[in-house]
Amino acid sequence: MADHLEASVTLPSEPASVSAARAHVAGTLLEWGLPADADMADTVRLIVSELATNAVQHTLGRSPTFTVALALDPDGRLRIEVTDAHPRFPKRLPAAVQQDNGRGMVIVRWLTAEHGGRLTVRPTREGGKTVSVELPWQVPAEPLPTAGRQEP
């Protein structure tokens, strides 16, 4: 397992920042050896999209920025954190059939559980909150090249 790795980006709380957060995370995961087409990469991008969207939509102007941080520990855990300045913790909203939004945290909880991870929310010293997801780091083994190789 690699040494401890960290990366973060702070973005303005505006809709365009959600795709910027997703792109930052995708690039970081690629640098850390996770192919862009791996299921784990899709999962992490979706989690970041949902958490960043929440940081933009639900802070009600009380958080001019939000931060997305990734950490890869030598023990094989990937930590994804989204921090904003709004003190209200995410709530699970009732799932009305006609409801177009409000399912982000349900998706994050489901993906986290499906991959054997852990979701926590904690207050920051500054009065905001950090939503943190820890997942087992699952980098697929690279297949051996077969072109030009002859069987004995």
TrEMBL record:
SUPFAM superfamilies on file: ATPase domain of HSP90 chaperone/DNA topoisomerase II/histidine kinase (SSF55874)
Top-rank taxon: Bacteria
Molecular function GO labels: ATP binding
Record CDD domains: HATPase_RsbW-like
Start and end residues of each Histidine kinase/HSP90-like ATPase domain: 42-137
Name of the featured protein: ATP-binding protein
Organism of provenance: Streptomyces glaucus
Swiss-Prot/TrEMBL keywords: ATP-binding, Kinase, Nucleotide-binding, Serine/threonine-protein kinase, Transferase
InterPro entries associated with the record: Anti-sigma-factor_SerPK, HATPase_C_sf, HATPase_dom
